[in-house]
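Handout, page 2. Input:
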Amino acid sequence: MIDEKLLSILVCPVTKTSLVYDRERAELVSKAAGLAYPIRDGIPVMLEAEARRIDASEMSAGAE
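Output:
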């Protein structure tokens, strides 16, 4: 679980756009960049090198 206040201020370090929290995968998703940043031990890892590329089907499905 990630704090809602923290989620409201975090942005993608690549595109500076908002992120979507994917609870199932414990990731913060940047649809603009096509990247999913992992959350490890409750801490978002906001490094492009650590992010997972997401495909078009994941972007259209929308994370909740």
